[in-house]
Amino acid sequence: MSAGRQQPPPGFPPGEGRQVLLVEDESRLREMLTRAIHEMGFVPTAAPQAEAALRLLEQRGERGFDILIVDLNLPGLGGMELLEQARSRWPLTQAIVLTGFGDLEAAKQAIRLDVVDFLSKPCPLGELEVALDRARNRRLKAAGVDPASVASAKESAGPTGDDEPAETTAAPSLEELEQRHILAVLEKNHGNRTATASELGISLRKLYYRLGQYQKQGLIP
Questions:
Q1: Cross-sheet strand order for the sheet of 19-23
Q2: How does DSSP assign 141-186, residue by residue?
Q3: The model's pTM
Q4: Which of 20, 44, 47, 202 has the fewest CB atoms nearer than 10 Å to its CB?
Q5: What is the CATH number of the domain that holds 74?
Q6: How confident is the model at residue 172 (pLDDT cuts 50, 70, 90)?
Q7: 46 φ, ψ (degrees, to nearest 5)
């Protein structure tokens, strides 16, 4: 699954530093993070397994992706093995580790592979956005581009019709994104809970539990 493509900000080199490959095997979390990464101004592509991620990297040739976000606990080829191959074959790609199974040994390995950040799930989306910005800056510097000059170019471009007002509220949490996603799928299926559970890849019992929570919060009647 890939998110809808979006153009980089005015003055930013097309595609430079904003192409993100997310590798996450949990489908609901993958969809929510893909949407969140897109809303942060990056161009995400998602893969459910390391093997699929390697194929996507290879399709892009020597350039690969600018940023790689990897869950360490993946089926088949593990996340750490993926990071090692990516570091060897695409050295300019900047990596962020996102995992619910992080431990000291994994952190040591990640540091050895020079990852940008090591985030434990569930992490606040604000922390992920900071990590993405840090990874983009490192990617630009690796390509010989001064991040400060990119920011200046963006400012000098002035406002465009596509510009949106700056966010004044905190980034939503993963729980809030999950809530929005479940309710959106429920609406899409015209309230059919069986179809909604099937599309979400969760049990009907779990869906009823979540909807019960939302009713208590006054989000649905």
A1: 43-47, 19-23, 67-70, 94-99, 117-120
A2: HHTT--HHHHHHHHHHH---TT--PPP-SPPPPHHHHHHHHHHHHH
A3: 0.66
A4: 202
A5: 3.40.50.2300
A6: low
A7: -120, 145
